[in-house]
Amino acid sequence: MQTIFSLRPAIDSDAQWIVELRAIVMRDDLERLGRYDPVRVRQRFLNAFVAEQLQIILIDGEAVGCIAVRPATDGQWIEHFFIDPSQQGKGLGGAVLAEVMKRTADSRVFRLNVLSGSPAQRLYLRHGFVVESQDPVDVFMVAGGMLG
């Protein structure tokens, strides 16, 4: 079944609800890694928030998540990819990731990092990402561009 969604550009006022969604979505993985700090998890997002790089994921007009693509010299970084837990496991993440990668593809690779042991890593592997490096906390992945 195809998940129907739309994307809209983020605006500055989106930051506050996204920061709360981030804290919910990342909490289990950060607690498992012994790194959950309720202030830091929110402040790190607010420090990096750039509305122009972020898209809001909508289902039936309701905001259920977000995803950003940040251009950099070493590729395009997929960041701030958060989906409300009530919408996870329904194919939405894969559909959004595929669409965003299709819209922004160029000769550069896509890069991202995911917390070690996160179930999200399986999503990225299914979409052509491979592990480039990892440490006890982060797994850095890469896909597309001039790989292979």
Summarize the structure in words:
This protein is an alpha+beta fold and 148 residues long. The chain has helices at 15-32, 38-48, 92-104, 120-126; strands at 6-9, 54-59, 62-72, 75-83, 110-115, 130-134, 138-143. It has a 7-stranded mixed beta sheet with strand order 1-2-3-4-5-7-6, with helices on both faces. The model has no long low-confidence stretch (mean pLDDT 92).
Overall structural class, as computed from helix and strand content, comes to: alpha+beta
The number of helical runs is 4
Given as residue ranges, the uncertain stretches (5+ residues, pLDDT < 50) are none
Reading side by side through the largest sheet, how are the strands ordered? 1-2-3-4-5-7-6
Question: Which of globular, elongated, flat, extended, rod-shaped describes the shape?
Answer: globular
> What's the gyration radius in Å?
15 Å
Portion in helices: 25-40%
Order of helices and strands: EHHEEEHEHEE
Q: How far do the termini sit from each other?
A: 31 Å
Average pLDDT works out at: 92
Blueprint (SSEs and pairs):
Blueprint: E1 6-9, H1 15-32, H2 38-48, E2 54-59, E3 62-72, E4 75-83, H3 92-104, E5 110-115, H4 120-126, E6 130-134, E7 138-143
Parallel strand pairs: 4-5
Antiparallel strand pairs: 1-2, 2-3, 3-4, 5-7, 6-7
Helix pairs in contact: 1-2
